[in-house]
Amino acid sequence: MRWAGASSILRAVMLSLIGVDIGGTRTRVGAFFQGRLLARRAFPTRGLEEVIETIHGLLGELGWQAPEAIGVGAPAPMDMRAGVILGCPNLPHWSGVRVTDRLRAEFRCPVFLANDATCAAIGELEFGHRAGDFVYITWSTGIGGGIVSGGRVVWGASGRAGEIGHMVLSPDGPPCRCGKRGCLEAVASGTGIARAAEERLGEGLSAEEVVARARAGDLGARRIAEEACRAFGQGLSIVWELLEPELIVLGGGLTRSWDFLGPMVVEALRKMARGEPRVVLTKLGDDVGLYGAAALPDHFPREWASR
Amino acid sequence: MRWAGASSILRAVMLSLIGVDIGGTRTRVGAFFQGRLLARRAFPTRGLEEVIETIHGLLGELGWQAPEAIGVGAPAPMDMRAGVILGCPNLPHWSGVRVTDRLRAEFRCPVFLANDATCAAIGELEFGHRAGDFVYITWSTGIGGGIVSGGRVVWGASGRAGEIGHMVLSPDGPPCRCGKRGCLEAVASGTGIARAAEERLGEGLSAEEVVARARAGDLGARRIAEEACRAFGQGLSIVWELLEPELIVLGGGLTRSWDFLGPMVVEALRKMARGEPRVVLTKLGDDVGLYGAAALPDHFPREWASR
Q1: CB-CB neighbors (< 8 A) of A245 in chain B
Q2: Class of B132-281 per CATH?
Q3: Same topology for domains B5-120+286-304 and B132-281, yes or no?
C-alpha cells in the first residue's frame, strides 16, 4: 500500500516549515515550502545558538517572517513531551537543553522534538519510498530505527520505540555503550566494527577502513565484516518476524558500502527470516532525517504536544 | 493512555457478534451482544462443520436470526484477504478451508479471519487491560504475539506481524518446526521445553511435568526451565526495545506457572532491557482469543475486507 494521506495534509496545510537534523558530527537545517526543500545549510554540530542563527539566516534569505512550525531530530535520549534533550554522550553540549521552549520563544511557532531515526522514518514516509508499513534503520556509528505501521509512526509509550540497536542478540557478547552486553549495536555498528578491529587486529581503524581492507582481501578484516553483517542480518530478520514490514529501508554511513556488505547482510537475513523480506536503501541519502524533521509537526502525537 | 475508542464503536454499532477461537486442541464459540459475552461453547477442535452447528445452536438459544458479523481466530498460516487457512501442521483438517466464504454463505453476514494471537491482542485491547500501546504474547505449546500501537493493531504487510516466536535468538540453536534454527519458540515454548527434556533427561515429559519437577528441586529440570525463561525474557527485552509498549501482556498455558517461572523471566528481561518494562498476565484467561475474535470485525483492515 502506498501512503499518500499525511503527505497531502503536509503539502496543503503546513506551508512553511523548518526542519533541523542534529547529528553527532553535522547539523542540517532546511526550509520547506509546501513540502519542497527550498534551502538548506549544513555545519559541524555545536550548540542550539548556531541552529537559531542558521534559521534566522534562512528566514531572511527567503523573506519569511516566521515558519509555521519547526521540527527537530536529535540522536539522544529525550523527554518528547517537554522537548528536552537528556544526558547524552553523543551530544555533550546538548544535555538538559530545553530545545522546544527555546526555539518557540525565539520563533513564536509550534516546535517538536523527536529521535533522529524516527524522524528519518517520517522522511521516508513523506518523501521517500512512501510505503504504509515499513521500518527505517540507520546503519552507521550507531544503529537506530523508526517504525511505521498503517501510515502512522509507532512511537511507543514515551516515544522510544525503534531502538533496534539495543536488542540483545548475545547476552554474553561485547559491552555496549548503553551499559548492557551483546546489543546489536555493540556487534554490528561502526563502533562495534572498529572495536573488534582494535581487539583482534590490534590497530585503531575506522569501520570504513576495516571494510576497505576486507574488500581488498584481508582475512582478519573480512571476518570482522562478515560477523557484523551476519548480526545485522539477524537483527533485520527479527524486525521482519515481529513487524512484517513491506520494506526495510536502510540509511547511514555503512550503507555506502552496500555493494560489498549488502550480499552478506541479505544472506543472513534470508536464512533467519521466513517469506520474502525486501531491503532497500533510502533515496534521500544524508538528508532523510532533515526531510523527516520538517514533517515531524504533522506526525507528532497530539496528546504529547503541549505547544 | 487508556484505550476507549474502538470499544465504544464496538458496543454501539456492532450489536450481535459471534466470536470463534479455533485452538490447536479446543475450539471456543461465543455470542456477544453490545460487547458482552452472552453465551459460549467449548469443544475439541474438529472441522468447520462443528463450528457452524455450534453457531446455529447459539443463535437458536438466543432467538437471533443471524449475527451482524462473525470473527474467527486460528493458529495457522492464512490468507487474510481471502479468508483461507493455508497448510498447517497444527490443524490438519483445516488446510485450504475457505473459512469466511463458507460462514458467510451460511449466515449471510460479514466474516473475518485472523491469526489467533492477533485476536488475543484485540481481546486485551477491547476487554482486558485496554492500554493503547501494548504487546500480547501467548506462552504455550508455541509462542505467538499481537501488537497494538496507538490503539490500532499492527498488522504488517499481509497480517503476519507479531511472529515473536520465530525471531532467531541463536542462529546455531535447536531446529524449529518452522524450518529455521534457534527461534525463540524452539527454545522457550512448551514444545521446546519438552524437547530439551527428552534430549537431556532422556524422558518424554510435557512442559508442565518439567516445570513441576523443577519446582520440586530436580536440578536437570530446573536448568531446562531456567534456560527457557532466560530465552523468553530475552525475547521480551527485544520486544520492549523495538516497541516500548506500556505493557507486555502474557497469556497461554505456561503462564499458569507464572509464580515459579515469572521471576526468572523478569530477571532476564530486566538485565537485557533499559528502562522499566511492565509485564502483566491477561485478565481474560483462556477466553482472551474468543473475546478478540468477536471484536475482530471492528479492527480488520478495511482495505482487506472484500466481504
Answers
A1: 156-157
A2: alpha beta
A3: yes
**Chosen from A241, A280, A303 to mutate, greatest number of chain B CBs within 10 A:** A241
Contact check, Cβ <8 Å, B242/A164: yes
Q: What ranges do the domains of chain A cover? A: 5-120+286-304, 131-282
Report the run of H or E that residue A149 belongs to, with start and end. strand A143-149
Nearest residue to A140 via CA among A248, A228, A61, A222: A228
Give CA–CA dist B136/B281, Å, rounded.
9
Instruction: Specify the residue for cell string 530477571.
Output: B267
Count of residues making up chain A: 307
How far CA B195 is from CA of B41, B182, B230, in Å, comes to: 33, 13, 17
C-alpha distance from A216 to closest chain B C-alpha (Å): 28
**Burial label, A121 (beta-carbon count in 10 A; 0-12, 13-18, 19+):** buried
C-alpha cell at A302: 497530539
Residue whose C-alpha cell is 553523543: A90
Is B180 close to A244, i.e. CB distance below 8 A? Answer: no
| Chain B, nearest residue to A240 by Cα | B161
Superfamily of structural domain A131-282: ATPase, nucleotide binding domain (3.30.420.40)
**Angle CA A116–A120–A124, to nearest 5:** 170
Record: contact B234-A168, CB cut-off 8 A: yes
Three-state secondary-structure class, residue B21: strand
Whether the CB-CB separation of B139 and B261 falls below 8 Å is answered with: no
A241–B163 C-beta distance less than 8 A? yes
Using 50, 70 and 90 to split pLDDT, how confident is the model at A11? low
Tell me the C-alpha distance between A147 and A128, whole Å: 14
Mark yes or no for CB contact B244/A161 under 8 Å.
yes
Q: What are the residue ranges of helices labelled H in chain B?
A: 5-13, 48-62, 99-107, 116-127, 184-188, 190-201, 207-215, 219-243, 258-272, 288-299
Per-residue pLDDT of chain B (307 residues; tens, 9 = 90+): 444 444 545 555 558 999 999 998 899 999 999 889 999 999 999 999 999 999 999 999 999 999 999 999 999 999 999 999 997 777 888 999 999 999 999 999 999 999 999 999 999 999 999 999 999 999 999 999 999 999 999 999 999 999 999 999 999 999 999 999 999 999 999 999 999 999 999 999 999 999 999 999 999 999 999 999 999 999 999 999 999 999 999 999 999 999 999 999 999 999 999 999 999 999 999 999 999 999 999 999 998 986 5
CB B129 within 8 A of CB B280: yes
* Interface residue of B177, B180, B242, B278 to substitute, partner A, most A CBs within 10 Å: B242
Interface touch B163/A245, C-beta < 8 Å: no
Topology (CATH) of A5-120+286-304: Nucleotidyltransferase; domain 5 (3.30.420)
Quote the minimal CA–CA distance from A301 to chain B in Å: 9
Nearest-CA distance B14 → chain A (Å): 23
Amino acid at B28: R
Q: Do A168 and B272 touch (CB under 8 A)?
A: yes
Select the residue of A154, A166, A245 nearest B243 (Cβ to Cβ). Answer: A154
Closest partner residue to A1 (CB to CB) among B237, B246, B303 is: B303
CA distance B297 to chain A (A): 17
Q: Which residues pair with B2 in a beta bridge?
A: B131
